[in-house]
Each structure stands twice: as structure tokens, then as C-alpha cells.
Amino acid sequence: MNNNDFSHHLLSWYQDHKRQMPWRGEADPYKIWVSEIMLQQTRVDQATPYFQNFISLFPTVFDLANAEQQEVLKAWEGLGYYSRARNLHSAAKTLVQDYNGKLPESYDEIIKLKGIGPYTAAAVTSIAFNKPNAVVDGNVIRVLTRYFGVEEDVRSTKTKNRVQDFATELIDEDNPADFNQAMMELGSVVCKPTNPECYKCPIQSGCVAAKTAKTDTIPYKSPAKKKPHHTIGVGIIEAEDGKLLIALRPEDAMLGGLWEFPGGKQKEGEEIQETVERELAEELGVEVKAYKELMRLKHTYSHFSITMHAWMCKLVSGKPQPKSSQEIRWVERNELERYPFPKANKVLTERLMGKGQGELGI
DNA sequence: AACCCGGGGGG
DNA sequence: CCCCCAGGGTT
After folding, report:
1. In principle, which of A30, A48, A92, A142 could form an S-S bond with A65, CB 3.0–4.6 Å?
2. Rg (Cα) of chain A, in Å, rounded?
3. Nearest nucleotide (C1') to the CA of residue A347?
């Protein structure tokens, strides 16, 4: 199969099978850009409602640039990889200040923006401006390693560069927008990680993995490291007027710019109650009494997992200071939903607002 | 090159 | 339980 046949078969299949998506067919480069940031390491179904909400809140790059970071993070709450939201917001300001609010059309220029790497630069310039830059994402890696029978580790930079070269060689310069999206669509719905449906594939006749029955072993990925597990104690300090203390995480930390109930890792030989009291002493400079466990929950982050023990606390002495956070604030229970929280803390806020399901309760 | 960074869905 | 997902930034 030559490059023309490849492209013809692929695009023909795409015309007949492409799924409907809110950003598909969209001409506004800003919306295409937002969709591509949201889709980084995120499934279409998960991103879709966030995209609709985000665009309704920030219809243009100017609206986004003028928004407060807290509003942007609130719109991103629950989607994960929050640096995406911070970088998107930052890049919007750059566009308004230095680019008259317009995304640059060239790969070399657009990749300078925060949060735009090789994938997103190729995606936006091809889809919004019809530039022949080939995208390489997880889908394309799977499709092309199988198609060309690449058996090396797909985690390595060398293999990714090989795949990028294949994609660049294959891209249809007359229709790069559809070519790129068709490659990803094919990887997503036909050339799936397990049980690929090769009988549906428009390029099966040229596929090495299909012909040699190697779709189970290609792409090859070296083993991932095991995720460590931590036990975390967090304290919910309730003042006499009923307000609760929340803290704003440092800008450059994990989950930066989101709010939380202060706490930290349990040490060896330490009761979890002591963990909570020690952590709050360290982070707020106060003495507290952890008097009642509110709930426990398990949560998995990208590189570790936790069991979180949440304790209700009373202030014994001292005035809380933001020693390890940007800011601390006393808030009513019904005000908690105004603030962006990471998932594990979000579960706590819902319990505290009486909206918890209770299945994780102790 | 290695590591860090969320959360959800599917097998 | 594991893997994967329209990756990017930092060191």
C-alpha cells in the first residue's frame, strides 16, 4: 500500500465513521486549542462536558485572559493535571498581550506558548490552519507501530521519533486536518489497545502486526514502576461560629492553586490522630485537638496512592498562619462549593455539605 | 532520559 | 487489579 492508498482508505473510512464531538467542525482556533489541551491524557467522553462548560464560561481568549485563576481552576475541577489549566490561562494572557488575541499559525511559533508541546502544536496548526504537521499521540503510536511492525519500547524517545517520522511521511498534505483526526479516531475505535477490530480497519492490508498476528505484543511498553502508597491524615478545624479552615496550595506544587484541608503523611509508630495534630502544628503553627474521625477514603494519583483519614478538629491554642500554603480562609460549609478542590478533598467537602453518599464512611 | 503531574473508565 | 487515555514541563 503506497502513501496515497493509505491516505485514501483512511480518509474514506473517517468520513463514514467519525464520531460527533463538540469541537469537531469548529472553525474557531481558540476552541480547537482549548479542546486539545483538555484532551491531553483525557478521554473524549470525560472531556466533553468540561469543554461545553468551559466555552460557555470563557467564549473567547479575551474572556479567558481576563478571568481569575480561581474561576479557571473551578472550571477544571475534577479533570486533573491542573497545570494544564494554569498554563492555558497563562498562554491566553500572552496571546492577548503579544499576539492581538490570535493564535500563531506556525508550529515553531505556537509551540512557544505555555502548555503547547509537539502534539498540541501539530494538532492545532493542522486542524485550525490546515498546516501539514503530523500529530503523534497514544493512538497514533499504536496504529503506526502495528502498521510498520515496530517492536521496540514505545516509552523510548527513539521509538517516538521513529513514529513521528512515519507520520510525517504519511500525512496527506491536501487534508492534514482530517488525516490527523482520522489517525486518532482509528486508534481510538478500531486499533484499540486490547482486542483491536482489524476486520474493520481500512489499512489492514498493509499492517504488519495484523498479518503476523502481533497485535497483542505491539506496541511493546516496558513495565511501569509500582506506585507507592501513603497514609494521610487531614484536619478539618471547625471554629465556634461553625466556619471551617481551608488552605490554598502553593502555585508551583502538585495540585497548585487548588484548596484543601491541611494535613500530611503519617510517620512510623504514629497514631493517625497524632499525624493530624502534628501536621496542623507544622502547617498552621497552632495546637489542635483531633477529636472525631469524619471519614476515610482511598484515592489514586498519577504516581502514588493514598488512604486519607479526615478528622474533625478543635483549635486549642494559637492563630492559624499560612506557613505552607499561599493563603488560609475560614468558610461556611455551604460556601465550600465555590472553591476548586482536588478530587479527594472534594469528597470531603461534599460530606461536610451533607451531600456525601456515605459509602466510604467509617 | 527520567521523572513528575489527576482522574476516570474498561478489561 | 491493571492498563490506558488527542502530553507537557522540569531536571
Report:
1. A92
2. 24
3. B7
